[in-house]
Write a structure and sequence with these properties.
The protein has 13 helices and 19 strands. With 473 residues, it is an alpha/beta fold. It folds into 4 domains: 160 residues, 3-Layer(aba) Sandwich (Rossmann fold); 113 residues, 2-Layer Sandwich (Transcription Regulator spoIIAA); 116 residues, Transcription Regulator spoIIAA (2-Layer Sandwich); 59 residues, OB fold (Dihydrolipoamide Acetyltransferase, E2P), CATH 2.40.50. The structure holds S-adenosyl-L-homocysteine (SAH), iron/sulfur cluster and FE3-S4 cluster. The site of iron/sulfur cluster has 10 residues, from helix 6.
Length: 473
């Protein structure tokens, strides 16, 4: 039944892609030049992967890809709402887009993603941003072609937001940003309801994909030149628990590990409350699964962790880190930390600093708590004053830098396998690559190396990255 729904939903989209294509061909002839589309992504890896799907459909329709909004005939913002400043960025840029559209009568502007799942945002766009042509959310990403068609034929603003997923439609064309690596969704949504977090509200309940679909997708990607996949889920450790035939994350990893031609496997994000020894053993026994665990702490205070609904204590988190290091002695552990959660005291904050020192993170993403309307934390009293939060944030950053720089240095002098990802932004004649521990290294080399896995000698640690030199194998 599910399959039939998916098949007909897919066929419907293919039909609308065809219709839009005809429209675009006509338009191109009419104005005597090709039409350009720009997909702008905010937020996390999930959004980045969704954007590849959007761009795939836009190219199929006939748009040429550009990164320059000012010369685009179709601009889509794939938005994030995890923190307030993510929203502010979007509104800021929309103002500019309005002016671009004034000069280009063929231009269409679309907005989708997590921010669009918030009713007050959609209301604001409907009322105050009438020049936005198409609005849709996280659950109907795959239906963009139909919405473009509706916009073209109706001539008026199209808004289509769903409360949840009806179908998962995966087989539409996608256009990868990197030919050699790709994100792969293994599950959608989140059931954890951490009290500060908007994600469960905008991404819905957890749904795992069937292992065979995931494996088929990865096999196709490998045939298409992909060497590294990043398995994506908000809490990968709960993968597969609700499938008709339940499968654990460890089992899934084992199956993916067998895929021939695939060279590297990453995943994001495990949850400290759920990570299992078996998963770590699969990583230890695999040559492909990368030596890196992103392990979000959020706070080091057991009292705050409880208020955050994270379901682990400071001690438990540290025990889990110990278990990880026991099974994977050389692993790189990174984390996310929030400062200024409601009611955070100096003592709570010191617990966070203590965990940073004890866990020895290779790096940490640090965030100032952002009040998200609709989440339980937004209604909590004792929101921490801004100056106190700023001061703590700076102290945390200083500690993270100190600890990480000291710890990351341990690889100095080693020869490491590196997947070359692109030209170095800062130095001509240099390229940048990623080790399996996720740390970046810059070294002299030319563009022909991009997409290859090479051996690099790590000459010098520069804080969060290395300078190295290519070793001939
Ligand atoms: N599923 C992942 C996180 C996804 S959101 C996990 O459970 O770890 C990415 C990060 O954004 C979170 O780890 C958290 O540190 C941060 N974050 C989420 N909501 C936030 C908020 N309201 N204010 C500040 N940071 C937040
Ligand atoms: Fe948000 Fe928590 Fe779910 Fe992560 S696990 S997405 S922080 S609710
Ligand atoms: Fe990701 Fe932001 Fe949505 S972090 S899931 S894009 S709210």
């Amino acid at each position: 039944m599910q399959e039939d729904n998916n098949t007909s939903a897919l066929e419907e989209q293919l039909y609308y892609i065809g219709e839009c294509k005809k429209f675009l061909e006509k338009k191109t002839k009419e104005i005597g030049r090709p039409l350009y589309a720009c997909v702008h992504t905010f937020g996390c890896q999930m959004n980045a992967r969704d954007s590849e799907k959007l761009l795939g459909v836009l190219k199929e329709i006939g748009y040429l890809e550009t990164e320059d909004e000012d010369k685009s005939d179709f601009v889509i913002y794939n938005t994030c709402t995890v923190r307030e400043n993510a929203n502010l960025k979007v509104y800021g840029r929309l103002g500019h887009l309005k002016n671009v559209k004034r000069k280009n009568p063929h231009m269409l502007i679309a907005m989708c993603g997590c921010m669009m799942q918030e009713p007050d945002v959609v209301e604001k766009i409907r009322d105050s941003y009438k020049f936005v042509d198409i609005v849709f959310g996280t659950f109907n990403i795959y239906a963009m072609a139909k919405l473009i068609y509706n916009r073209i034929t109706s001539g008026s603003q199209v808004i289509d937001i769903w409360e949840k997923t009806k179908d998962i439609v995966e087989e539409l064309p996608t256009e990868r940003k990197f030919p050699f690596k790709s994100g792969v969704n293994i599950m959608y949504g989140c059931n954890n309801f951490c009290t500060y977090c908007i994600v469960p509200y905008v991404r819905g309940r957890e749904i795992s994909r069937e292992p065979k679909d995931i494996i088929m997708e990865i096999e196709r990607l490998v045939k298409d030149g992909v060497k590294e996949v990043m398995l994506l889920g908000q809490n990968v450790d709960s993968y597969g628990k609700t499938l008709d035939n339940p499968v654990s994350f460890a089992q899934l990893l084992r199956e993916i590990d067998k895929i021939e031609g695939l060279e590297r496997i990453r995943f994001m994000t495990p949850h400290p409350k759920d990570i299992e020894e078996e998963t770590l053993e699969v990583i230890r026994d695999s040559k492909k699964i990368c030596n890196h665990i992103h392990f979000p702490l959020q706070s080091g205070s057991s009292r705050l962790l409880k208020l955050m609904n994270r379901k682990y204590t400071k001690e438990h988190y540290l025990e889990q880190v110990e278990m990880i290091r026991r099974i994977l002695p050389d692993v790189s552990i990174t984390t996310d930390i929030i400062v200024g959660f409601p009611g955070e005291t100096e003592e709570d904050f010191e617990d966070t600093i203590d965990v940073v020192k004890k866990a020895k993170f290779d790096s940490a993403y640090t965030f100032i708590y952002s009040k998200r309307t609709g989440t339980p934390a937004a209604r909590m009293e004792n929101q921490v004053p801004e100056d106190v939060v700023k001061d703590r944030f700076n102290r945390l950053l200083a500690t993270v830098n100190e600890v990480s720089h000291e710890h990351i240095r341990r690889y100095e002098g080693m020869d490491m396998k590196v997947l070359v990802e692109g030209k170095d932004d800062h130095e001509e004649g240099f390229v940048t690559g990623r080790m399996t521990n996720n740390i970046l290294v810059h070294f002299a080399g030319d563009e022909s190396l991009i997409g290859q896995i090479v051996t690099v000698h790590l000459d010098e640690c520069k804080g969060f990255y290395y300078m190295g030199r290519l070793i001939e194998d």
